[in-house]
Amino acid sequence: MKRLIIADPHVGTRDGDARAMVALVEHAERAGIREILYLGDTFVYLIGMSKFWTTSVEVVLEAWDGFRSRGGTIRLIEGNRDFFLDEEDLACRVDQSALALEFTAGDVTFRLVHGDKVNQRDWQYLFWSRLSKCLPARVWARWLPRRLAVAIVRTMEARLAKTNRKFRYEKPVDALRDEALRSFRRGVDVQFFGHFHTLWTMSEMERTAMVIPAWLETRQSIIVNESGRWHGVDEVLRPVEFIEAEVAGD
Hints:
37% of the residues lie in helices and 22% in strands. By secondary structure, it is an alpha/beta fold. It has one domain (3-240): Metallo-dependent phosphatases (Purple Acid Phosphatase, chain A, domain 2). It has a seven-stranded mixed beta sheet, covered by helices on one side. α1 (17-30) runs parallel beside α2.
């Protein structure tokens, strides 16, 4: 199975994001890609209850519906802008959502995790992250009026962004390396992270870890072929080489 991995799209941040994502899904299907994996933060924010969905969310979900109706698969890795992805409204529109996902292509094992929690020393960020996704927050999201519930989520996200910003742009390299080495010891060959928006790589023997550059800024993603070979691609799936770049926005 050929797969496409997209990190940090933040669809809805800029005009035209939703149209660009729909076009990418359509390009993927024409290219024979059967599974699309989103490496967290697919939208500005994504709540599993449909009453919170913006027009951008609805437009992309419709594209996913079409892709899935023709045999494609959509999988989501939970990021810091994603809330309650297992709620029924969203769960029936995707094939899987999880904090981490693994798959094997050829004889290569891949692991995907968003990356916002790799630094266990970032206590302030971890506290606000857990608070915003706890059971009481889920109950509030279910029962509060739309306007008030969205305001709460936006407030929590603003706190997350403020507390975690220094770790977003100054990568916790030691924590990323430790997480990658743990994966390698478990038999993972390629560990992909998102969240930090700009490229970072490490190699250990024949194994690789990478922070995939954010689609939001680069319009780039990764194709994994059936053999396990993988490479970067642009918005029309032409091969590209990832380069170091400054983050243009959040």
